[in-house]
Design goal:
- The protein has one domain: MetI-like (MetI-like fold).
- The radius of gyration is 20 Å and the shape is elongated.
- The protein starts with a helix and ends with a helix.
- By secondary structure, it is mostly helical.
- Helices cover 82% and strands 0% of the residues.
- Helix 2 packs across helix 5.
- This is ABC transporter permease.
- Keywords: Cell membrane, Membrane, Transmembrane, Transmembrane helix, Transport.
- Pfam families: BPD_transp_1.
- It is a multi-pass membrane protein.
């Protein structure tokens, strides 16, 4: 590839990392507490509230079941209101964050449900509050699973960010569409695919190593 194309590839990689990093952070800030709420408000849980739990679960399922490309288009007015535009990397962060939040919530919920119920009952018997149980038992014990959940989410966001590039979201997907497909430059498309594969492999490997290091079982 020409030096100009290499520069564009590097810039697109930075844009992809920006989109995935910010949306992953926002998704975690909202998805982690949402996952905790799904666990502690369930039937027989610390703060049982079945009606609230069902509504929360239904909303999470509705967003998760919506194909990302449809979500991307459907919330364009909201994206424009939040970001001031519906095109570019900043705009793409909005739908990516919305897609990541319930995905993280459900994975966090699954990780928290793996925690030994006996530990929770022991702390309840000693008079611990729900907040103390969440901080001292649920989150520490489920941390390896949560790290794995975040790793899976980031990998999924990389794929979503490439899809966002098809509608002007910027990043590697945009580069592949504009130059690899529309301008018939197969070497650009091949380079984009290779970079995406290497990026996913690096993130997955790092996440797996961190999860194993945190798992003391």
């Amino acid at each position: 590839m020409s030096p100009e194309m290499l520069d564009l590839l590097g810039q697109s990689l930075v844009e992809t990392l920006w989109m995935v990093g910010i949306s992953g952070l926002v998704g975690t800030l909202f998805g982690l507490p949402l996952g905790i709420l799904l666990v502690i408000t369930d039937r027989g849980a610390l703060l049982q509230n079945v009606a609230f739990n069902r509504v929360l679960g239904a909303v999470a399922n509705a967003v998760r079941s919506t194909p990302f490309i449809i979500l991307l288009v459907a919330i364009i007015p909201f994206t424009r209101w939040v970001a001031g535009t519906s095109i570019g990397t900043t705009a793409a962060i909005v739908p990516l964050s919305i897609a990541a939040t319930p995905f993280i919530a459900r994975l966090v919920e699954a990780a928290l449900r793996e925690v030994d119920r006996g530990l929770i009952e022991a702390l309840l018997a000693m008079g611990a509050t729900p907040g103390q149980i969440v901080r001292k038992v649920l989150l520490p014990e489920a941390l390896p699973g949560i790290v794995s959940a975040l790793t899976i989410t980031i990998v999924s966001l990389i794929g979503h960010s490439a899809m966002a590039g098809a509608v002007g979201g910027g990043g590697l997907g945009d580069l592949g569409i504009r130059y690899g497909y529309q301008r018939f430059l197969p070497e650009v498309m091949a380079a984009v695919v290779v970079v995406l594969i290497l990026l996913v492999q690096a993130i997955q490997s790092a996440g797996d190593r961190l999860a194993r290091r945190l798992d003391h079982r």
